[in-house]
Amino acid sequence: MKNFHIIFTSLVVAILFTSALYAKEKCQPNFTVPPPPKILSDVNTNSKKKPVYVFFDGSLSMLGYVVKRPPLENLFPDIIDQLTSAAEDLGSETLYHKFGKNIEMLDERGVEKMSEQGGYTCPDSNLQCEIDNKETRLDKVFNAITVDKDATYIVVTDLFMSSKDLVKTKRTKLQKPLKAILRQGKSIGILGVMNSFNGIIYDIPTDEGGTRTYANAQKRPFYVLIIGSSKNVNFIKNRLKQDALLEKQVEVDYKFSLITSNVISKNLNVSEYIKEENLINVNSGGEAFKLHYTDQGLPVFRFNISQGLKQIEFKFKNTDFIVPGSNDIAEYKFEEKFWSRRDVECEKGEVWKEAKINNFSKTEVNGTGIDKHLHVNIFGVKTIKDYKLRWGWRYFVVTNLYTAKIGTASVDAFKSWSLSKANADTFTNTEPKIFKTLNLLRIIKILNLVAEEEFKPTLVASIGLDFDLKK
Amino acid sequence: MNVLNLIRSFILCTIGYAVFAALSIWLILTLLLGEINPDGNLVRILIKLVDEAELDQLGYTFAEIAVDMFYMIAWLNIWSLVTTVVFALGWSLGSHFLNVDAPGKAKVYAIHWLVVSGIFIGLLLIINIWILNSTRFPASQDITKTGTFSLTFYIMVYYTLAYYLSVLLGTARFARSSVLLANKLPALKIL
Amino acid sequence: MKNFIIALGGTGAKCLEHLVYSCAAGLGPEQLWAGMIDQDEANGNISRTKVLLSKYFNLRKSLRETGKNDLSQDSSLFKTLITTNADSVWLPLKGANPTLKEMILYDRLKPEVQGLIDCLYNPEEKKQQLSEGFRARPNIGAAAMLATTTNEKDPFWSQIYKAIDQAKGGEEVRIFLLSSIFGGTGASGFPNIARRIKNIQKEMQVTSNLYVGGALMLPYFTYEVPDEDVEEEMFARPEQFIEQTKGALEYYANLFKHNKIFDQLYITGWDPLSKIPNFKMGGNLQNNPPLFPELYAALGALKFFDKNNSISENQEIFHIGKNPTNNVVWEDIPDVSNELSSKERISRLIRFAFSYNWMYGPSLTGSWARIKKYSNENWFKRLIYKQTYNSETKQCEIGHENRQEIVLSMKEFCHDILLWFTDMYYSTEANSDQKVNLLSPEFFSEYRPNEVADRVSLKEKLNMSEKKQFNNLITDDSNFKLLNIMSNICYNKINKNQRGLGVFMDTLFKSCKK
């Protein structure tokens, strides 16, 4: 009997203690956290099973890339070579094409010829060929790309497009397939390589309204467009970079940009990625500091701060969640709420009160390149003091960080290689040795625009804060 | 020193601040213990001191922070009242020990009175600042700057008046010339 | 009760001086008639006492004017109504400087009587001109006293006759004599005047209600006689005082064995004798300072006059002396009665005099334009302004001539009080080991023993630190400050029966009580 009493009492005490602990632990308002975006989690990363389509621009203006111009190094053949190799490695099968006015398939010999002059000249007055290599119908190529949405497409071209090809229906023809591509969550990688050039550049617009040619250019960029999943795009790019662009005798001038409607590579809540170190202006060594993840995957930081602190600051590496090489994020937005209660111990008959204030956080991006960081300042729009948060109270904040607008990194990247129609004649008259690409920026902006149109705000991270504001 | 004179001063001084003190004590008790009508004048006055919009932004109404506010105002009055009583009685009783030993000497002690009064007003101000601006009372966060200024102003005026009236009456007769305008009091038996 | 006091000789006058000041302090009876007897009319001490009596009388009169300036019956200040004759001094031998020979009509005496006179008086004594007293020759004085008649019509003696008549009518009459046992006038007059009174009593067949008392001063001072003053002059020799005293005491012992002359007799002396620095034979240069033992005689007289003093049928002889040490302290001063503490009243009077002389008197002196700066002070408002306000002219009349007269008279009287007590202090201490621990006058006075006229002078004004020493004025450890006085005059109740300046004077006097 005595033993029974002891056991019973111990049980009761244990239950009460646990309840109390549980009750204390559970001092949170009712809130919901949006789930991480599916699109990212559902991306099929196994492209090995899918084919790769390669399109070579066969127009006459491409001829200059395969003619040497010593002492300048000609990278074009090597890149073609490496490109085919990478393509072969990437896909289940690689299908090669040549395009100009029309698209035609290439066999192995045809592929080989694309590194030679023969790939661009017409033998024995082949009329069809003469007609064909006078145009660059990129729109047809893009149209073809939509056929197999899981495949990877590679286009090698000089991207020298006249203005008339970038307006009205022709523009629409260009945009429509691109939209379809981006809507699928695909990306467009543009790798530009400044290469030696020994040939004629055609269809340079003049101020009078006509066109002219130019044969004195020694260098001119060509482009490799890689269309597919961002993973595959980066695969091809990295292979080319590694095998054809780096470790040359002379440093290669190349640029790369990834255009996509979703630049976020992962949600930071997935796999409990957010750690104590991300909270940079609150002492994690403090007594009351604690980080735990809720059942919904929300990381909740519990700590004390004083009124002197202006805001609560998190820091994340851009490379951790932004697709490398992409246009980056120009703007972020928040969906956030906070609650308060007038006691910190959650013992009195006080309740959590939801504040009407929202949009109290802001972001800041610092650094460049791989050192770029995103600073998330909660209560950073003003300061904690300006929001009149009361000391002695307890606060609970749920902040959901979304992308709001894609950046324009690609524009900046390729700006220096672009030649506008208005300046073309003047530029050509200067007898440049390095020739630029006509309307390059317009093309890239069109691509960006399409990406923006297909852009949907993506949840980057959700963060929970549970803090006491001390005197 | 004649104890009777001291008692007389004590009584007169007390009469001087009695009305003020009575009102103050009523207010203190009401704020601390009484049931306050939420639609009453007291609440109407106190609401003007806070920024309701700000509270609303945080999801609160005045009613929810009212108790803390009452508590703070009550203590503000307690401290102010105690200070007033201490200084009033202190001066009234202490005036009996001023060395007014010859005709015309009482005026010299006007400086002393001014200094004491200045210290009193300073202390009253410090009390107001401490209670309404420091971290002693959570409700100090709810009062606006204008509200703080208004409350401080009224408290200062109210208790300074109480102090002045009590020292006017309670100061030793021979030292009355040291208190501003006190020498205008008629020489009555009861005074 | 009717009271009469007769001061004989210089010593008597000095004792009377102490008595007048004591009456100002409220130690005296309701009423007192005072007279002095001295052949040396110009005697400095007599003159001084005469002036004092006049001042007292006038000041009291102006402060007992019903409806105007009235201290009222309840006030102790100037309580006693002291009256005197127009000439308060009675000369036993009137006329232009008679000699003893002329006075006793020696030439007309029978030879055998002449022979007797020759045995009793030497040629110098017979030739001695008596206008400046009897030069410590009681034998001369006695003869002179007896030679005169007690003329009922004489203004001096008419008072005595009236007094005895009042006793006959049922009213109690007390007569007191102040005198020294040594010296001339006093030694000779004391027993003879007393017997003369007793004879009148018998003549008028008054058997009750008449009491006679006396204070007899044994030697209490001495002085050095410079050699140049010795030649061919008869004067009181201090070395003879003790001898004379011894003889006188034997005389009185025998006298009292057979005759009840005095109902109460107060005897006092001093040892060692106080040394007076100046020797003057007589006249207005004989202006001896007040000495402490004289106060005993004065207080003895006031005790005699006190209504609570019940006089026994048997003759009572009281003697008093101070404590055996060299220090004179307040406890050495006897109370007049259980209700009247001499120490309290006298010390109060001195404080009153001090505060009035240096504090309040100057504030009340002058025109209204000068005085009005105090008009907002509580003490002024309640004690001066209200009491001297004329509702018809709507003015405060403190600056008016009649009020100012009183203010100045009081200032003068207070000045005299301070001089009196301070002189007594210095003179009693001078040239001796005696320490008079009654007050500390050094901070407000100066003592110049070689100057007879201005032996003691008071400072015109006192500075702050000097005023602060007020609490040490009276050596009684009371620490009574000027502040206490100021507080008291603001708070003490005003007597409803008082009017005008009487209000302020009495309130100030009451406020000086510890």
Topology summary:
The complex is a heterotrimer of chains A (471), B (191) and C (514).
Chain A: H1 2-25, H2 38-41, E1 52-57, H3 76-90, E2 94-99, E3 103-106, H4 108-113, H5 127-132, H6 138-145, E4 152-157, H7 168-183, E5 187-196, E6 201-205, E7 211-214, E8 219-228, H8 230-245, E9 254-260, E10 290-293, E11 299-306, E12 312-317, H9 318-321, E13 329-341, E14 353-354, E15 362-366, E16 373-378, E17 394-406, H10 409-414, E18 418-419, H11 421-429, E19 437-438, H12 440-453, E20 459-470
Helix pairs in contact in A: 3-8, 6-7, 7-12
Chain B: H1 3-32, H2 41-47, H3 52-57, H4 62-94, H5 110-133, H6 145-170
Chain C: E1 2-8, H1 9-24, E2 31-37, H2 44-62, E3 81-83, E4 89-90, H3 100-103, H4 111-120, H5 123-127, H6 138-147, H7 155-168, E5 173-180, H8 185-203, E6 210-217, E7 221-223, H9 241-258, E8 264-268, E9 274-276, H10 292-305, E10 316-320, E11 327-328, H11 342-364, H12 368-371, H13 378-388, E12 389-390, E13 395-396, H14 401-429, E14 435-436, E15 445-447, E16 456-458, H15 464-468, H16 482-491, H17 500-511
Parallel strand pairs in C: 1-2, 1-5, 2-3, 2-4, 5-6, 6-8, 7-9, 8-10, 11-14
Antiparallel strand pairs in C: 12-13, 15-16
Helix pairs in contact in C: 1-2, 1-10, 2-14, 6-8, 11-14, 11-17, 13-17, 16-17
